[in-house]
Design a protein that fits this description.
Elements lengths: L6 H15 L8 H8 L2 H4 L5 H8 L5 H11 L10 H15 L3 E6 L6 H15 L8 E8 L2 H9 L1 E2 L10 H7 E4 L2 E4 L7 E5 L12 E6 L8 H14 E9 L12 E6 L2 E6 L2
Parallel strand pairs: 1-2, 1-7, 2-6, 7-8
Antiparallel strand pairs: 3-5, 4-5, 8-10, 9-10
The structure holds S-adenosylmethionine (SAM).
């Protein structure tokens, strides 16, 4: 098998990824393509990257296309990531308004930790009365990566994913131990669902949301795509709805659509009406 990657093959793979998923690799990321895609070659009966590139756009290549996008996504996430956001959600947005209904979208859910963390925080707050005890909430997690979504749906985490971001007490409280792995307890899973979704596609079928978490994904996109997605999120939010971005991400020229709020040190963006 020939594992070398020519500049032209790299450019073609990059172009494909940007077109399919919006992901921009930038220059000098050949090592990433080689390390992530080499293992796909034998399973698709390919002899090398020249073969892969030749097959990528061809008839009947959906399986290969999906596998390439899946392998090239960066699914890094962890429990209670940017915990200030969850505090803002509970103490800043819900404690005072005390809504009866709440729809949350975890728009790049990866393996599910963001969506389940939100459910854990909501359940805790409902139990101790910080938010409406009768709150009917729904959390929808979406991602383009089938492998990540499968783990999210299984709600079982092993290795680093079973500890990163969690204290021993949180592990005991919110999970069931299972042979070195941990499984999210049913009460934190029952109102969380996951589905495959590409952020480049129309959001219409998802309905409207009160809160959107779109964290640590826009960094992979071009400025134009990022702006387009932020504008479409604004339209998918209900009046007065809120958007959380990753802690290193910004609104990029969409201050006309969102008002930035700093609540106890956590940043959140409220859609302007
Ligand atoms: C780094 S993870 C972020 C996970 C989580 N939001 C967090 O902040 O911890 C980025 C996720 O975005 C997903 N992603 C990348 N491009 C996407 C696209 N076009 N549509 C939907 N999801 C995408 C990847 O599969 C990956 O799971």
């Amino acid at each position: 098998m020939n594992k070398t990657l020519t500049p032209a093959e790299y450019d073609r793979i990059h172009e494909f990824l940007e077109g399919q998923a919006g992901i921009k690799l930038g220059p000098g990321k050949e090592y990433l393509v080689i390390s992530r895609l080499t293992r796909l070659l034998p399973s698709f009966g390919l002899n090398g990257f020249a073969d892969l590139v030749a097959r990528l756009g061809g008839y009947g290549s959906i399986g290969l296309q999906t596998a390439v996008v899946d392998a090239m996504t960066t699914n890094e996430t962890f429990w209670f990531r940017d915990n200030a956001h969850f505090k803002v959600l509970i103490d800043g947005l819900l404690a005072e308004a005390r809504p009866n209904d709440l729809r949350i979208w975890s728009a790049a859910a990866s393996t599910g930790q963001e969506a389940y963390t939100a459910a854990i925080c909501l359940q805790d707050a409902m139990q101790d009365g910080r938010v409406n005890r009768m709150l009917r909430y729904e959390i929808i997690g979406t991602d383009i990566s089938p492998t990540a979504l499968q783990e999210a749906q299984g709600a079982t985490y092993c290795g680093v994913a079973a500890s990163r971001g969690l204290s021993d007490e949180q592990r005991r409280r919110y999970f069931r131990e299972q042979g070195g792995c941990i499984e999210v307890l049913p009460q934190y899973r029952q109102r969380v669902s996951f589905r495959s979704f590409n952020l480049l596609k129309s959001f219409d079928a998802l309905g409207r949301f009160d809160v959107v978490f779109c964290r640590n994904v826009l960094i992979y996109f071009s400025q134009e795509r990022k702006r387009d997605i932020i504008a479409r999120i604004a339209r998918t939010l209900k009046p007065g709805g809120h958007l959380f971005l990753g802690s290193t991400e910004s609104m990029s020229g969409h201050e006309d659509l969102f008002e930035m709020r700093n609540i106890g040190g956590g940043l959140v963006y409220r859609v302007r009406s």
